[in-house]
């Protein structure tokens, strides 16, 4: 069954996924057993650890939030490093220290994007505890931020942030494969911050006030030349072709339309690896996300542009996170 068919059903009022209810029960039982094993071997880092994850499958905006946290906390004097599973990549050895030039086929798209955006050490390893140890042994980082990994309980964490798509919310609130949930909604009761990306009314399943986040257009960037233009200095006319291989492509297309563009959008699966033909400009401007651009570098021309975005979060919340980290750091130091 195509994944898109399931996804459409999860986020609509379709009833037929309930036929998969026995598989949902099996998934929950296996997940509970797996998490119990991970908890038994959980490793606590000597520095504060933040996990930015989600409770549903698919993209919700975690990576932009990670980049925003890195930027803010660097200004506060922290020396953060990022760890990631490296979804979509495959290496013959781990851990891997990522640079903006690292092959996305080895470490995945998001780590390469984050390495370029943040300028901080990024380490990829499916074993996040091993990634964290490597980060601490090879760099001077005093703070670890895990991009995803909410369910990877073998890595101890001090703060958990869950990002939820404001439009899709939690879908039908069922766990896989009946619904999009990786864990039951009750898991939200134990996290430190619930971050809602985009407009959307928080459902009654939230027992705490969610934090609002939005993705703000930052600049137009031409990867080939490195030229960057302010949003008001649009480098093309009204009509563009837009491609997106992210969790919610329509959100990207909507943003472009809100900027006054007529968009011919083409959606691809999240973490999709593009071919030359997929991104061919054919004489017309092509706009893509930063996450997709890192996978297409060899084929990009002057007709290709990236819309860079940044995550906007209430500064009061960011300051609250900073203060909590200071307390955690003190406790770990005095240990």
TrEMBL record:
GO terms for biological process: lipid A biosynthetic process; lipopolysaccharide core region biosynthetic process. HAMAP family: LpxK (MF_00409). The gene is lpxK. Its EC number is 2.7.1.130. It catalyses: a lipid A disaccharide + ATP = a lipid IVA + ADP + H(+). This is Tetraacyldisaccharide 4'-kinase. One of its GO terms (cellular component) is plasma membrane. InterPro entries: LpxK, P-loop_NTPase. Pathway: Glycolipid biosynthesis; lipid IV(A) biosynthesis; lipid IV(A) from (3R)-3-hydroxytetradecanoyl-[acyl-carrier-protein] and UDP-N-acetyl-alpha-D-glucosamine: step 6/6.
């Amino acid at each position: 069954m195509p994944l898109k068919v399931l996804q459409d059903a999860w986020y609509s009022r379709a009833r037929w996924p309930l036929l998969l209810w026995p598989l949902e029960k099996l998934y929950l039982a296996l997940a509970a057993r797996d998490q119990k094993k991970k908890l038994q071997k959980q490793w606590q880092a000597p520095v504060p650890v933040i996990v930015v994850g989600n409770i549903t499958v698919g993209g919700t905006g975690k990576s932009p939030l990670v980049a925003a946290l890195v930027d803010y906390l660097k200004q506060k004097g922290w020396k953060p490093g990022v760890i990631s599973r490296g979804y979509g990549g495959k290496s013959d050895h781990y851990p891997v220290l990522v640079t903006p030039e690292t092959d996305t086929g080895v470490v995945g798209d998001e780590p390469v994007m984050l390495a370029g955006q943040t300028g901080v050490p990024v380490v990829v390893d499916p074993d996040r505890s091993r990634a964290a140890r490597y980060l601490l042994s090879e760099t001077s980082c005093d703070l670890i931020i895990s991009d995803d990994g909410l369910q990877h309980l073998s890595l101890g964490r001090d703060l958990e942030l869950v990002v939820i798509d404001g439009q899709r919310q939690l879908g039908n609130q069922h766990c896989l494969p009946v619904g999009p949930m990786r864990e039951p909604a009750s898991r939200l009761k134990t996290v430190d911050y619930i971050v809602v990306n985009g407009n959307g009314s928080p459902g009654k399943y939230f027992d705490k006030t969610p934090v609002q986040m939005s993705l703000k257009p930052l600049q137009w960037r031409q990867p080939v030349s490195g030229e960057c233009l302010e949003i008001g200095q649009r480098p093309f006319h009204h009509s563009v072709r837009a491609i997106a291989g992210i969790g919610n492509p329509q959100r990207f297309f909507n943003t472009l339309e809100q900027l006054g563009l007529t968009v011919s959008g083409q959606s691809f699966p999240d973490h999709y690896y593009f071919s030359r033909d997929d991104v061919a400009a054919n004489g017309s401007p092509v706009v893509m996300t930063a996450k997709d651009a890192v996978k297409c570098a060899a084929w990009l021309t002057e007709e290709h542009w990236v819309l860079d975005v940044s995550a906007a979060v209430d500064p009061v919340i960011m300051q609250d996170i900073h203060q909590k980290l200071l307390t955690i750091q003190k406790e770990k130091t005095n240990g």
